[in-house]
Design goal:
There is one protein chain. By secondary structure, the protein is an alpha/beta fold. Helix content is 31%, strand content 24%. The strands form three sheets. Strands 8-13-10-11-12-9 form a six-stranded antiparallel beta sheet, with helices on one face. It has a five-stranded parallel beta sheet with strand order 3-2-1-4-7, sandwiched between helices. A two-stranded antiparallel ribbon has the order 5-6. Helix 7 runs antiparallel to helix 8. The chain is elongated and about 70 Å long.
């Protein structure tokens, strides 16, 4: 019988206490990083652990299950990027229909106080919580004050031009193929990670071996050809290459896919988890009249990618 307890995924006692950064953190962009870094700074000053409390699946996936994939960082990638910021723990609460029915006061009392034993909270200016988004940062401060728990509100993170960093603006940039703007918001290149799957091996037949990663929950960026860096998850992204994201219409593809070729790389990587960073958009995806035309275009794409890399910081 399934467990319908909305608090079933509460953290173990060993993870109670500390400063908690709260949020969905999809993308872990510079605004999110400011929240997490503020929590770390506060925790170090108090001499207690710095922790992140986040939620999976993303609430939008629960309330709007039929919308197109939108995640900048699905759960495993998000946790990896959050941990890289230096927090002591990342606690993921399972966002179920039952959990979503907790009122704002129940969220504070049952989740933050009883389960997490929070000693201080850090959240962004736009953080909302509880059923029907019934709680906000000022209510959080009001309800936690009697328990001696302080709240730090992190104001909008802006760049030197006054631009606010946001997940929605990052998604818009990626859907336009504007990787420079996306990188500006994220503070890093956007990447897609996943297990290398077997394909039809057409690339091998054309002497251009490729690897495939299903897009899954990831946002679909602008379909087309990209200059990329790749490597195993958790390792430096040192392999240069070129990738196609889309349907692969020339070969009758029926699934959206990331397919990439790495220069001078011939290892068998099937079944391994790799991460591919998108550096530069070369051209939109297109259908070619035959395989010879496709092969010729692939060669041109590889030369264009190598030329771009040679004049970029990645090629030095």
């Amino acid at each position: 019988m399934p467990n319908s307890d909305p608090l079933a995924s509460k953290p173990p006692p060993a993870l109670k206490g500390g400063v908690f950064a709260l949020g969905n953190f999809d993308g872990v962009h510079l605004g999110h990083q400011a929240v997490v870094k503020a929590a770390i700074e506060k925790a170090r000053g108090m001499g207690i652990p710095a922790r992140v409390l986040t939620f999976e699946p993303h609430p939008r996936s629960l309330f709007k299950p039929h919308i197109p994939p939108f995640r900048l960082t699905p759960g495993p990638a998000k946790i990896r990027f959050l941990r890289a910021l230096g927090v002591d723990d990342v606690i993921v609460r399972t966002f179920t229909p039952e959990f979503s029915k907790l009122t704002a006061t129940e969220f504070v009392e049952q989740v933050l106080l009883a389960d997490c034993g929070a000693q201080h909270i850090v959240a962004g200016f736009d953080f909302v919580f509880g059923h029907a988004r019934g709680g906000h940062i000022s209510k959080l401060r009001e309800w936690l004050a009697p328990h001696g728990v302080g709240v730090t509100e992190v104001t909008p993170f802006r760049d030197t031009q006054g631009e606010v960093m946001s997940s929605s603006r990052t998604r818009e940039a990626l859907q336009q193929g504007d990787l420079k703007t996306a990188e500006h918001f994220l503070g890093r290149s956007w990447s897609i990670a996943g297990v290398i799957e077997h394909g039809a091996k057409r690339g091998h037949d054309m002497s251009v071996p490729t690897a495939n990663i299903a897009l899954g929950e990831y946002l679909r960026p602008k379909f087309g050809v990209y200059v990329v860096l790749a490597g195993r998850v958790g390792e430096p992204k040192a392999r240069q290459g070129v990738a196609n994201i889309g349907m692969r219409p020339t070969v009758g593809g029926d699934q959206e896919m990331l397919e990439f070729h790495l220069f001078d790389f011939y290892e068998d990587i099937y079944g391994q988890e790799w991460e591919v960073e998108l550096l530069h958009f070369l051209r939109p995806e297109q259908r070619f009249p035959n395989m010879d035309a496709l092969r010729e275009q692939i060669n041109q794409d590889m030369e264009a990618a190598k030329a771009w890399l040679a004049f970029s910081s990645y090629g030095r």
